[in-house]
Every structure is written in structure tokens, then in C-alpha cells.
Design brief:
single chain, 185 residues, alpha/beta, Rossmann fold, 5 helices
Length: 185
């Protein structure tokens, strides 16, 4: 998995700024047409880091449509909390250099109240299993979705470039599959 992460990260970083913007806009446009996006009120997103799909236009659209946007904060136990994010929210870099909102308890949401979660990823396969940075933040946080029958909320969508598709992913018992992955294609 380490080699796969390295290869895909190199490909992401090799994208020109115009390619990255073009692909990210195509991904956003596909997302905006989905009923799950249009009907969601509480949407978790992320701020891109190290070549991930850009999310600034997605976040602006969430705000324009009067939906609520939430961003993740990494907990010491390697799970995520989600905090309400507005244009006025102050951000600070975490230990990985990823911008996070300042944590205020009243702005947190229970993850089971989220309608939709947009996730970054390094790689994914055709069964919608994702590879992240290898620390398991999303899998730990959304482990409750592994119960059968699977709860309907939140709906998990990965945002990726088409070249991030790989069938060489080792699936573990704790891996939480996404409901959908959107690429520029």
C-alpha cells in the first residue's frame, strides 16, 4: 500500500494547476446534480491538502444553497469530529499541516446527524473501498456503518481523480466502503 500511496501522490502532485482546477470543477458539477447532494442539509467536506480534489467551489455552493457545511478535526484517538464551518470560521493548521476549524463544542455535530460526507482519498477500487493516508481516521469514525443493515446516514462520497482508481487495494475487515466515488470522468 505504501508504494500505491507514493505513486498516486506523485501523480496528483504532477497535475498542473489548470488540470487540477478543470478536473475538480468537473467532479463538483457531477456532485451538484445528485439528489443526495441536493436533498442534504448537513454536509461534511474537507479542505484539500497535498493535491487532493479541490473543494472550495463545493463549499461555496453548500453555503449558497443554505446547507450547513462541516469540516473534520482529528482527535487524539485518531477519530474525527465534525465542526460547523462558515465563511467567518477561523482555521489553524493541525500537526499534518491540514487546516482545521478552531474547536468549539457547541459547533460540533454528532456524525450520525450528517446527511452526506465528502471524503478525500489516495486510491479507491470499483467496490468503493478507499485508501487514505494510512492512519484510519475515516474508518474509525464511520465504523458504525459496518453494522448490518447499514444505516442510511451519512451517505459517504469519495472525491478523486480517475487515475486514483486501482484494483490493487488490500481490503481489511475494518475498512468502511464508500457509497459512491466521483471522478472527473
Amino acid at each position: 500500500m505504501k508504494n500505491l500511496r507514493h505513486l498516486i501522490n506523485q501523480q496528483r502532485l504532477a497535475l498542473s494547476a489548470s488540470q487540477k482546477t478543470e478536473f475538480s470543477e468537473a467532479i463538483a458539477q457531477q456532485l451538484f446534480t445528485l439528489p443526495i447532494f441536493q436533498n442534504s442539509q448537513k454536509i461534511a467536506c474537507y479542505l484539500e491538502h497535498k493535491g487532493e480534489v479541490e473543494t472550495s467551489e463545493i463549499i461555496k455552493t453548500i453555503w449558497q444553497q443554505h446547507q450547513q457545511c462541516y469540516l473534520p478535526i482529528i482527535n487524539p484517538d485518531k477519530t474525527l469530529r465534525f465542526v460547523h464551518y462558515t465563511p467567518e470560521t477561523k482555521l489553524k493548521p493541525n500537526k499534518f499541516g491540514i487546516l482545521e476549524p478552531d474547536l468549539t463544542l457547541e459547533k460540533q455535530i454528532d456524525i450520525k446527524q450528517l446527511d452526506l460526507v465528502l471524503t478525500p482519498l489516495v486510491a479507491f477500487n470499483s467496490a468503493y473501498f478507499r485508501v487514505g493516508w494510512g492512519l484510519g481516521h475515516y474508518d474509525r469514525t464511520f465504523a458504525f456503518l459496518l453494522k448490518q443493515p447499514r444505516p442510511t446516514k451519512p451517505f459517504l462520497i469519495g472525491l478523486a481523480y480517475n487515475f486514483q482508481l486501482s484494483e490493487n487495494i488490500e481490503i481489511q475487515s475494518w475498512d468502511v466502503p464508500l457509497d459512491l466515488v466521483i471522478t472527473e470522468k
